[in-house]
Amino acid sequence: MQMKKIGIGLVGFGYWGPNLARNFSAQQGCTLVGIYDLDAGQRQKAAARFPTALVTADYGALLAREDIQAICIATPVFTHFELAKRAILAGKDILIEKPITRTVEEGRELVALAEARGRILAVDHTFLYTGAVQKIKEVVSSGQIGDVLYLDCVRTNLGKFQEDINVIYDLAPHDLAIINHLVDGEPTSVMAMGACHSGSGLENIAYLHLEYPGGVVAHCHLNWLAPVKIRKILIAGSQKMVVYDDMDAMDKVKVYDKGITVVEDREAVLKLKVDYRSGDMWSPKVATREALDAEAQHFLACVRDRHRPLCSGEDGLKVLRIIEAAQRSLENGGERIFLQPA
Amino acid sequence: MQMKKIGIGLVGFGYWGPNLARNFSAQQGCTLVGIYDLDAGQRQKAAARFPTALVTADYGALLAREDIQAICIATPVFTHFELAKRAILAGKDILIEKPITRTVEEGRELVALAEARGRILAVDHTFLYTGAVQKIKEVVSSGQIGDVLYLDCVRTNLGKFQEDINVIYDLAPHDLAIINHLVDGEPTSVMAMGACHSGSGLENIAYLHLEYPGGVVAHCHLNWLAPVKIRKILIAGSQKMVVYDDMDAMDKVKVYDKGITVVEDREAVLKLKVDYRSGDMWSPKVATREALDAEAQHFLACVRDRHRPLCSGEDGLKVLRIIEAAQRSLENGGERIFLQPA
Amino acid sequence: MQMKKIGIGLVGFGYWGPNLARNFSAQQGCTLVGIYDLDAGQRQKAAARFPTALVTADYGALLAREDIQAICIATPVFTHFELAKRAILAGKDILIEKPITRTVEEGRELVALAEARGRILAVDHTFLYTGAVQKIKEVVSSGQIGDVLYLDCVRTNLGKFQEDINVIYDLAPHDLAIINHLVDGEPTSVMAMGACHSGSGLENIAYLHLEYPGGVVAHCHLNWLAPVKIRKILIAGSQKMVVYDDMDAMDKVKVYDKGITVVEDREAVLKLKVDYRSGDMWSPKVATREALDAEAQHFLACVRDRHRPLCSGEDGLKVLRIIEAAQRSLENGGERIFLQPA
Amino acid sequence: MQMKKIGIGLVGFGYWGPNLARNFSAQQGCTLVGIYDLDAGQRQKAAARFPTALVTADYGALLAREDIQAICIATPVFTHFELAKRAILAGKDILIEKPITRTVEEGRELVALAEARGRILAVDHTFLYTGAVQKIKEVVSSGQIGDVLYLDCVRTNLGKFQEDINVIYDLAPHDLAIINHLVDGEPTSVMAMGACHSGSGLENIAYLHLEYPGGVVAHCHLNWLAPVKIRKILIAGSQKMVVYDDMDAMDKVKVYDKGITVVEDREAVLKLKVDYRSGDMWSPKVATREALDAEAQHFLACVRDRHRPLCSGEDGLKVLRIIEAAQRSLENGGERIFLQPA
Asked: Is C249 touching A (CB cutoff 8 A)?
């Protein structure tokens, strides 16, 4: 007996939409039934690439299709809430681009609605589906690095400034989703500092300083104005430390043997400074499968089996709450903003 | 006619003292006349290594030597003030380890005393004498990178915790001396955040966030608990950017062609994200001379010609003022501390 | 007036064929008219992906299509000759996978036939169309590195052994095409050494040593059994040197200032050994466009304007001649084999 | 009861001599009794640095000293034989710079003489005493990498050409000593190819191809004309592979999990090509102790306990035999030269 294929409706065929289309159409268990976009040019491209799909500018027509069980939303963030709400009310499951919505308030309403209607709501924080992050989660969860002490994240790109959002809204979602996932929690406070080097008033460089329960500290350097692309996370545990360098094709994940050593003798301290690293290092091979392929497969399984996704609406909302608090801190000169548990 | 050699007295033959002794004794224009240390074992080593020098536990005897013009102080910081003061009062010029003194108050008194007595007072911020920092200073001063927009510094070592000072006092002097030197100024405010992962109460990881006049931002990540040794500074200018990686033996300094580009089209922004870097890169060959050799030569020239040193007592004091303010911020949960111009 | 689109017929939809299909179908000036494959499964994939194309197991039917001007051949090498010959006789232009044919004899016949019939014959040595190789060619041709003195190539992969060809036939075509292109010539002799570590009798590691006119030496290390993937070429000129590291996403091409220095004083020689590199380095930004996209565009332009391709049948034949000679050397214990000019 | 200190006589205070002097004088169990050099300037430096040592231009006077048990020879290679012979005849043990002598004939005589007189004869192939090579030897000897299949060595420097010897005599001794040590054997044949880019007639680039018993292949790329300094050895075993990169301060030694996989399906082969490396990697921490310090300590222990050194005269002779054969091959256009077991 063959399993019935899940019908997918894609909303938005701009930058990210084609990637979703390509990955979902390559899955065994689904069919790309329809594609919605308001732009005629994008619809033309969609039709050429997916000749058997319904391509439309009428969102109602897409939602009316009974052979569509799930909607993937890849439109600008200010449209997320309305589009997702209508889809949930139409009985569809949802995969939505990050950030989940424009405001925490909208996000809360959406999560509650999905809950009430029994719909799957997944947020596309793609990095959680990379081989590297999955390997790191496995290493951290195994306990082998001991207690997590701090996480230090650096994420830069190459001097392309956006005009509608600042660097925090653009880049922080990636790191915050990863951090929350790895420590399995939410921060209790956040501070944000930044600077704007164009006339736009939007910060192009920012630093976030987060505190998590148990004294865990996380720090993010977010930067649009860097000469090289950096995506690096350092995770220090009480027993070992992990370095995740996403730009290193060979050795993305490195695990260093290392505990804390308190040294009393100052001369010994200084002599130890000549060392380059602290112990043996192990670099596991990391799956090179495209993250979005893994994510599409996972989402389809959640739809089929009615499971909560790895990155649910609640998870997306947690990330957005931090970003809103960071924005408030930024506007108040770096003031520490405390977050109540959701 | 041969120039008269400058007589040097070395104070402290612990960790750093032997390096000073080796480098000064290798200079043409000076003689290592005497070495003072309170520890008998260190004195024995000093005598074996420099059999012609006076080796003594009597500081007065050293200062009494008329053939000693300059005193190099390489003892623990709490002793700096008294030792340097006595030496200045005895008419000696001074090269003193960083930080200049334990407190800003002591430092101010020392600087004023040296000024009043017409003595050279140099502080040993060795990095300013490296080929790399000198090349970067040259590049920045030439104007080719445009206005300096921000500096981001990362300095880590390998999990050896000290018991008397925190990571800011240990590592920040290096970066702060370099930053002040490159931007030729002092910060107007500083924030500091940190965490302690041993029972000592002394922070082993800290972040400093500094603002300099003209909107220049500087950020330092200081860390005793890292798996690898990092010493990296990123300097963004409005025209070009510089990356200084002190652990990269091949390419310590890289200068990237790069200006700011404001992109209006969101799709264009996202597509640009696939690039790895932003323009051509130029990596000048950097002098590999030992920094302390250059510094010793420079100090001797200052003594001979009565010039103000590249890194004077005032410069050392400016660094210490930032550190004291950072410590205050740290103790107040990251509060922004404003600094008055000295 | 719109230009008439060039019709393309693709032969082989196995590993490389889909890449050709994707890139040609994305070009403005052509239409992917038909796809031929003997395997029913591959035909099914081709039909799903290119629903408007003729998908067939009948080669004659493809060649009979008058709206097909050019045939792209991406089948196993032993089929190249027959398929290409029939296509040329049917009046089609040809883009053929490397190596051009199984034997030099076949290659010669094919080149002569294309010449006689006035057909474009291009060989798909894709690396020549990468941004990196094109930048290096530009640098070398500009004369700024002086005379080329030697080229040293290393190309490894990860221990996957093939059962039909040895490592020379698999990997050498890439390097030989690049070398011939950069020095704009052919070698006068070749030596080959190798070893087999499986029971197959096929070498999995080999070294080629080539001499080109004017004393230029080229050396290739070809290896299926390496722990990491290496693709590196070092090009020494009398004035400067170029390092091409294809696995380095950031700095693929580096140009080092460097001339020859003859040192008479042995002590000076030994002291110079402490340096890490020899002069300033310049790393140009390299176009990140997919090579096959550039190649498809170039081939279409050649078809339209009847130009000789950057990598013609003759060029492909020159590479194959070296490989055959290398194979002969290998079978004779590394004997030097001399090559007559074609 | 204190052990009597071993008296050391140093011959040659040029480039390497001061390093020997510094390291031997820092050992507990010995005294640097005398230093011999024909150059007055070098004698002056030696006397300033080691004021308690006899500094002389009279070799006989050095040999006559009864408190000298061992002679370290660090003079140009053409003087090695005579100096060492006289020292052995005077009853001294010997540590001699590489290469052991100018010719194999001389080397054989020296080894025989030391044997006959019961003298320790050690050759200073310093790399064998590095933490990296010792760790690799340990890994290889443990059997964990399986059978050694091949070794690939690259050793370059920066375009400083010598006028008395070619690049093989200059650089090959390092790699050959390491290879012989790791495989615990000698090659059965050697081929050498090279080129000269100055007018001197001395090769500045050369490749050696060696075969060892059991089908083990070793290849060396030796180069004076490179833009960057490379010192890299790849050791492939049937189970795992080792990469030794001496210029990588962080990760000098890497061990990769990897066996041979024979792949029958060509498409599978090609798809596997997208991977960057082959399995988990482990990078052991390597001792950072100065190699010459370890070597001095080892030599003193051999002198005291009459043990055969890790790198004996025989070992030095084996290296020289390969170099002589390589030179012969070079002069015969790369002809394979067979070596008889010593």
From this structure: yes
Please list the alpha-helical segments (H only) found in chain A: 17-25, 40-49, 59-64, 80-89, 104-117, 131-141, 167-183, 266-272, 291-305, 313-331
Interface of B with A in 194-213 (CB under 8 A): 195, 197-198, 200, 205, 207, 209
Q: Which pTM does this prediction carry? A: 0.91
Contacts of B229 in chain D (CB under 8 A): 250
Give the contacts of A110 (CB within 8 A, at least 6 positions apart): A81, A84, A85, A88, A100, A101, A121, A313
Q: What is the pLDDT of residue A262?
A: 54
B265–chain A Cβ distance below 8 A for any pair:
no
Return the top range by mean pLDDT from B14-18, C1-5, C120-124: C120-124
Which of D188, D225, D281 is the best residue to mutate to test the C interface, defined by the most C CB atoms within 10 Å of its own CB?
D225
Q: Is A249 on the interface with B (CB under 8 A)?
A: no
Residue D113 burial (CB < 10 Å; 0-12/13-18/19+)? Answer: middle
Contact by Cβ (8 Å): D235, C250:
no
What is the pLDDT confidence band of residue C273, given thresholds at 50, 70 and 90? very low
Give the minimum alpha-carbon distance from B263 to chain D in angstroms, rounded to a whole number: 33
Would the CB atoms of B283 and C283 count as touching at under 8 Å?
yes
Which residues of chain C have a CB within 8 Å of the CB of B288? 274-276
B279 touches chain C (CB under 8 A): yes
**A197 vs chain D: nearest CA distance in angstroms?**
36
Closest CA to A318 of A292, A338, A339: A339
Domains plus CATH for chain A?
6-119 (3.40.50.720), 130-288+333-338 (3.30.360.10)
**Structure confidence by residue, pLDDT tens digits, B194-208:** 999 887 889 999 999
Reported as a single tens digit per residue, the pLDDT across A287-330 is 888 999 999 999 999 999 999 999 999 999 999 999 999 999 99
Q: Distances from the Cα of C295 to the Cαs of C83, C135, C300, C302, in angstroms? A: 21, 15, 9, 10
Q: What is the ipTM of this complex?
A: 0.91
pLDDT score recorded for residue C91: 98
pLDDT of residue C288: 86
Residue A280 CA to residue A258 CA, distance in Å, equals 8
D228 touches chain B (CB under 8 A): yes
Q: Name the least confident of A151-160, A238-247, C201-210.
A: A151-160
Among A51, A52, A249, select the one facing C249 at the smallest CB separation: A249
